[in-house]
Amino acid sequence: MSAVSAEAVTGGVRTGPEAEPRPRGGGEAAPLAPRARLLPSLAAVYRAQLSRARVARIPLLFVATFQSVGIMILMRGVVDGGDEARAVVAGSSVLVVAFVALNLLAQYFGQLRAGGGLDHYATLPVPPAAVVLGAAAAYASFTVPGTAVTAVAGSVLFKLPLTHLWVLVAVIPLSGAALAGLGAALGLLAPRQELATLCGQLGMSAALLLGVLPAAHLPAVLGLARDLLPSTYGVEALARCFDARPDWLAVAADLGVCAAVGVVSLAAATWAYRRAAVR
Amino acid sequence: MAERGSGGEVAGDAVCTVRGLVKTYPAARRRRGAEGAPAVRASDGVDLDVRRGEIFGLLGPNGAGKSTLVRQLTGLLRPDGGSVELLGHDLVRHPERAARLIGYLGQESSALDELTVALAAETTGRLRGLDLRTARAERDAVLDELGLAPIAGRPLKKLSGGQRRLACFAAALVGERPMLVLDEPTTGMDPVARRAVWAAVDRRRAEHGTTVLLVTHNVIEAETVLDRVAVLERGRIIACDTPAGLKALVADEVRVELVWRDAPPLDVPEVAALRAGATEAGRRWTLRLGPAEARAAVAAVTGGPAFSALDDFTLATPSLEDVYLALGGRAEGLVKG
Questions:
Q1: How many cross-chain Cβ pairs, A to B, lie less than 8 Å apart?
Q2: N or C terminus: which one in chain B shows less Cβ crowding within 10 Å?
Q3: At a CB cut-off of 8 Å and minimum separation 6, what does A216 contact?
Q4: Edge-to-edge strands of the sheet including B55-59?
Q5: Distance (Å, rounded) from C-alpha A265 to C-alpha B143?
């Protein structure tokens, strides 16, 4: 037995052995250790997730980029400049975001939940939002190099102006937030790990078909599906920027939709996390 | 240790009090190709008192309800009924407080697998509410203490099972808590790592009065490190005392193990008579006998025709495994050594 009182122990104040043991009477409760605050714990989760990239993610990031560049090379034989070329380049660029943020994050959370890995976070005094946002932000960050490479390569390939590509600075985080939130929510809500993987794959396939194929050629039903998919708005925003004088208001409106979907889906993912962590 | 056996001693010093805890897993639906499972009462009216500064063990085979009980104490699982009070806090009403009172080492490491040992410890400390400087200082101290410094830069995934377990244990220690809940912490560890774990636990106990709740199915470990142990069987606590106190329950018995070279010589009448009381596992028979009977049994198998069929035999004083069997438990899931 130790001669250190509970207060000294939990308060982190180390009292010497001369401190008297204080008998615990009735209602007196030991002080609680502090909660982890949102931003520092978000930063810690983000940093930890980012470091995973080195171990586990780099090959997949290459796959994501090659897939998009490959699609553009294929489509070069089909489309010849104009609106269609813009759609192909913008769609392929945002596809990288969908691959990593939607598909891989859904898989990651599905796997973590199935394997009991969420217990680790659930037994730490960390706000659920920090875990979800930290992971989502890290996965959105993984998409940066691939998306930028795809957009630049596509612009060169289809002879589109590079002038306004700086818009990627807004497109990546906002479509990243929307798609990562969706991916996290799917991964945490799916009753089984395989379903999480399946949903992630389907979401990515939808982003591929509905994003890359020019909208004018789609049947009405698919056009509606295209409007419902959040990646569409990222694609549209980026496509508009290949104009000589982009309609900035429309770009802002598209990105606003991404941001709104991001807020809603990340909130849903946080709720799903809370539900998955304590059964 | 034996003098700490009586159940009612210093009840006021209990840091963790569990009363009437009940948790039932609902019946699983039938799926194609698989039978549905019936509802399982994984905690069936559990009462527990853990005292300040002790290493309290939960012993039982897989499926006895150890992990279910621990998950309810750590706020991971909501009990159907009953109360859990830890250091004056009602954890059934406020499960989120468990994370601020308990350092938990679960059985899974998948959340940390792709991090390096150092980052796993540091991140866990940060998420326990430490600032960056403190988290790093504690990380370095714990990694040194456990001898993990040389592999601090390697991802957990690339380590052996025992090293990975030790790294997770390190993460559980960063950010001090008055209570540690360790779910089979030494699984897969070599003796050096095990010693490091118990030394680290003892140090925290001596310096800070840390209380430890340990889940184990290893009877040898239970006998050597625990102050008191609760024996679980099908969601119930069937006994709770010091290891020595529990072993006193079966002190008048001797365990006799016989290993036959081939088939047991059942044509020898003494051997045929022993078979009735033996637990058979392949060529090994385990018998629990009174001292006089044990002597007679050994005399019978070591003399005469039975001896040529005998490969090995041992006589031993009872272990917690024998206690467990004497109390009516199923011992198949317990590990020796």
A1: 162
A2: C
A3: A83
A4: B102-105, B179-183, B211-216, B55-59, B228-233, B236-241
A5: 39
In angstroms, how far is CA B50 from the centroid of its own chain? 15
- Cross-chain CB nearest to A117 (options B108, B209, B210): B108
Judge: A4–B208 Cβ closer than 8 Å, yes or no.
yes
Question: Is the ipTM of this structure higher than 0.90?
Answer: no
B33 token code pair: 């190709």
Q: Do A25 and B12 touch (CB under 8 A)?
A: yes
Residue B114 and residue A32: Cβ atoms within 8 Å?
no
Query: What Cα–Cα distance (Å) separates residue A212 from each residue in A15, A74, A92, A229, B13?
Result: 66, 11, 6, 13, 68
Residue ranges covered by each domain of chain A: 37-277
Residues from chain A that touch B31, judged by Cβ atoms under 8 A, are: none
Token pair recorded at residue A153: 């390569």
At which residue do the structure tokens 């800070």 appear?
B208
Q: Pick from B56, B54, B92: which is nearest to B73 by CA?
A: B92
Calculate how close chain A gets to B134, using CA atoms only, in Å.
11
List average pLDDT for each run of 10 residues in chain A, which is 279 residues long. 39 37 54 89 93 75 89 85 86 91 91 89 92 91 91 92 90 92 91 89 87 79 86 91 88 94 92 83
State pTM to two decimals.
0.82
- Please tell me the number of Cα atoms within 13 Å of B220 on its side-chain side: 7
Q: Could you please report the per-residue DSSP string of B36-102?
A: PPPPEEEEEEEEEEEETT-EEEEE--TTSSHHHHHHHHTTSS--SEEEEEETTEETTT-GGGGGGTE
Q: Do the chains contact at B77 and A112, CB–CB below 8 Å?
A: no
